[in-house]
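Design request, tokens follow.
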């Protein structure tokens, strides 16, 4: 079972080793109560965006987060149905020591959907992955139920990190990105600002115009 480090961000809420499973329960409830089929990302998003098409390196990617690919993939033709499956099933899979993650490629970015909001908290894993892939990595979180919003940039070390919870800036590290101009990157940040920041970087987090295959992978927790 994965272990979690205690502090917040990038998603960002960090879980303790002993309470990891409890936090998954809370995360599931919060996402499930707010997500909708019509617009699954409006209530909660949790993604890792890796520059370039890295779909041929998925085992290497998930190994960085201490997972083993079970090679039991499910394919979906829309982001909505992919997210719906993740949302409805990730907790049950976790009870069997299996993590499920979505992954797809669009517009020069490989996108990982992290329904547990766990992998995005691992600075060490993301920095290692950025270094090994020689690629910039961004993370984004927006969860309206907990008023949690944030993002981070790694290339390969963490260069920018911004995190707000309950209307308070919990942490702001690094120089503002050029793409932040004109957005509410302050205590008033909201989902629209996260979406627009991602869009400015060429990352369509809503996948409204993406003709792609969305894959859900089953991953085994390494000891």
């Amino acid at each position: 079972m994965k272990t979690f480090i205690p502090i917040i961000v990038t998603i960002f809420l960090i879980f303790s080793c002993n309470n990891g499973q409890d936090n998954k329960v809370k995360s599931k409830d919060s996402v499930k109560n707010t997500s909708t089929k019509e617009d699954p990302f409006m209530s909660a998003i949790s993604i890792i965006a890796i520059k370039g098409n890295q779909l041929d390196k998925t085992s290497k990617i998930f190994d960085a987060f201490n997972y083993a690919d079970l090679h039991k993939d499910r394919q979906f033709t829309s982001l909505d149905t992919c997210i719906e499956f993740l949302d409805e099933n990730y907790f049950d899979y976790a009870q069997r020591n299996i993590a499920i993650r979505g992954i797809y490629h669009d517009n020069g970015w490989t996108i990982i959907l992290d329904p547990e909001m766990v992998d995005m908290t691992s600075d060490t894993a993301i920095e290692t992955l950025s270094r090994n892939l020689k690629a910039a990595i961004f993370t984004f979180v927006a969860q309206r139920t907990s008023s949690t919003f944030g993002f981070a940039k790694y290339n390969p070390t963490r260069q920018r990190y911004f995190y707000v919870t309950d209307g308070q800036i919990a942490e702001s590290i690094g120089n503002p990105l050029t793409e932040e101009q004109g957005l509410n990157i302050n205590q008033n940040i909201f989902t629209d600002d996260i979406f627009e920041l991602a869009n400015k970087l060429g990352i369509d987090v809503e996948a409204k115009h993406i003709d792609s295959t969305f894959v859900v992978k089953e991953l085994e927790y390494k000891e």
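Comment from the thread starter after seeing the answer: thanks! The chain has one domain: 20-221.
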